[in-house]
Amino acid sequence: MKERSFRAAQAQGLYYKIFDSLRAAKIPQLWGGQSCCLPARRVFKDRDYAGDPITGSPGRRQNPTVCPTVCGKAALCHLFLLFALCLRPVLAQESVFKVDVRLVRLLVTVKDSAGRLIGSLNKDDFTVSDNGVKQSISVFERRTEQPLSISLLVDTSASTGIELKYELDSVARFLKALFREGNLDDAVALYSFNWRVNLHSSFTRRIARLEQGLKQLKSEGGTSLYDALYLASRELEGREGRHVLVVVTDGGDTTSAKNFHDALEAAQVADAVLYPVVVIPITNDAGRNVGGENALTTLAAGTGGRSFMPSPGAQLDAAFSDIIRELRTQYLVGFYPKNVSPTKNRFHSLKITLNQPNLRALTRNGYYGEFEDSTGRGTGR
After folding, report:
1. pTM for the whole thing?
2. How many domains does the chain fold into?
3. 336-364 burial: b if 16+ Cβ within 10 Å, else e
């Protein structure tokens, strides 16, 4: 359990509103070349995570780039800062509420033996166990309408070649279909990856902005798939609602600094469901990265998603349609871990079963939670 003051949160909001107002004012410079001392807001730039295209050396996480803002009188800035800081202890009076941060949330897709989606079950139809210990379900939503945060990752390595155009056309249709229905707070972030990872649009509902990003993509270089999954997962953490990773690629990783396990852990920590769409223009195994395809299938299964392996065209459109249908029929199942003895492994294995044997539940296979430290005491992740 942790305590947080609602009024303190209000004060912090006012504090940053004053910052933003000062930035927006664009006061003319009176002291030549003096930078404003307001804290800079974080901006995720294209070159945050890049390898060397010449030597082929792996990428390295650099410090996030910030957009500097210049203001006029530093004294005026300090005056407003002092005013905001003085307000914080005044507003941060009692009115405290408690939040249990140990809630474990599962996004669950249920299918019958024929592969049809089942969206009409009740809470009593589900059984959840944490490290083999049965848990009591505290949160249950059928066909949950919690907002979606979808990170869309497009492979633009040299191997995508001529197929990239068909992939981008299909992605554009997917975006339009996604925003046509569902929660009005659903949002998509657009990434591309080759030998580096590029963020073209942060989370938005603006189709025109996403389409503009798609038009800029061209194929070149290697494939930093695991780096892309890792970074996109980190950006999903802390966002409200459901977290989803959709990656469009033609095979496996070749240039990442991160590895398979780093990518899987980042996705699970972010509570993200992964849907790899592996576009296969080649029907036989010769020339295909079968190992990469199998790795993506395993990654998807570990997060509660599933992989698709369509050819360009109608099959690719059908894969995106299936993803939307699954997202619209998901169950949200949540529990507070109880009577689970900490172990030295901070990864908790999860199992969810249904009381109808002809149905199967797809969800992530675990989460990172409380574990036993070197002193034998339980501690958080």
Report:
1. 0.73
2. 3
3. ebeebebeeebbbebebebeeeebbbbbb
